[in-house]
Amino acid sequence: MKLTFWGAARQVSGSMFLLELEDDYRILIDCGLDLEKERSKKNGQHLSLVNGVPQQASAAHAIFPFEASMVNVVLLTHAHIDHSGNIPNLFREGYEGQVLCTSPTYELSELLLMDSASLHRRRLNAFSKKKNKKNKKSSLSPSDLAEMYLEHNVKESLERFVPIAFNKKFKLKKGVEVTFNPAGHLLGAANVILEITENGEKKTLAFSGDIGRYDYPLHIDPQPLPQVDYLVCESTYGNRRHDYGRKSAIIDAEERLSEIIQKTCVDIPGRLIIPAFSVGRTQALLYTLKKLCVKKQLPPIKVFSDSPLAHKSTETYIKYHRFLNSEAQQFQEEYDDLFDFENLEYIEDLKTSKKVANHNEPCIIISSSGMIEGGRIQYHVRTNLSNPYCTILMIGYAAEGTIGHRLLQGEKTIRIEDKEVAVLANIARIDAFSGHGDLDDLLGFVKHQNPQALKKVFLVHGENESLEHFKALLETEGYQVEIPTKGQSFEL
């Protein structure tokens, strides 16, 4: 069999791995959006729209480096867009098979993919208006347009999703079985384990997806894998450890958040703005605030949750609370709710969102996206960035080049929505809410495998420094390690 790395190879996003068996049966593990890809834009080139709908990509702007119609099945580790975001395009390009994942992953994927489709529609509408005005400058290249799917594309792909239970073998075909192992990173997140028999020889492969943290708010701990022959492992935190020391993530999250709220909203008093991803991070944050409220450690101030996608995701977390950790389930039984508390207000419409940005009393504003790239959070940050009584609290990973990363690097001015803004607000950071396992978690995950029995570890989903550092540590433990490049294939 042959394994080819078509995404998340020497970079963090775009997870996509193609496994081809000897009988030409093809399995695609994840089909994510490459968030780091630099798209070349050629002046004067435009892709035609028919009734406002982007057409199938031409050969010159092909979305996939393989024939989509030749794939037999897709296995989805979890819902995050860098793992799921290209699934509608796979169907547009001719894929006719199924997408296997857990039930929570199916529902969260629907929310995230519909949100992406809505964003595509808004961008296409803006692009069409510019074309009608004969504006020669366009922010969309032909390849951009080719990759944009709409709501009906998402609905068509969702009809082919098949929910699979955790820890139960599912037969894909004779000699090929898959098991979804709890990964802990997100509600419904899984490692994918494949058992394949070819020519009388059995081989096992595991794909980590994203590995969660131990003792994290809401999410279960990542479960160890059985012994496998080949392991594809993420490396996001391959050279870093979380900064809470020996404390659990749950204890550290409560303590650090309480300290920052007291300092920002009571001692000054001022405004606390928290950029948070809508799926996973916002729920962990609201849950922690709820627990502080129950313990009477949350000041009587307004907390605004300003993300319609986050609200829908929270409903999914409530629906599937049995998939959460035992502490969260016990909390649910005792208080009948994981997230709602006094003074919490959900913001739906954009008009109210803009009013909240200028709320004249101490408050907490939680909005997406977590890296401050797009979404309502940009308006909140732009409005408050020059306010010395405001604190902007980063609670997760921010990729290089994003506004969040630039704030953490201490830049004195930030350009947001074509406006240069002086940074006078306090910029704070805690990683207690990061959903990724750190170096120790990653090492522990791999070291469940016997280095004499594990034939190869492939490291993906990480920046070069993380990949190389993690590789060096694993090699000292006796593991055979590869860091694939995009498009590189390996015979297994």
From TrEMBL:
Residues 282-407 form the Beta-Casp domain. Residues 13-271 form the Metallo-beta-lactamase domain. Keywords: Hydrolase. It holds the Pfam family Beta-Casp. SMART domains: Beta-Casp, Lactamase_B. Transmembrane segments: none annotated. One of its GO terms (molecular function) is hydrolase activity. Coiled coil: none annotated. This is Metallo-beta-lactamase family protein. The lineage of its organism: Bacteria, Pseudomonadati, Bacteroidota, Cytophagia, Cytophagales.
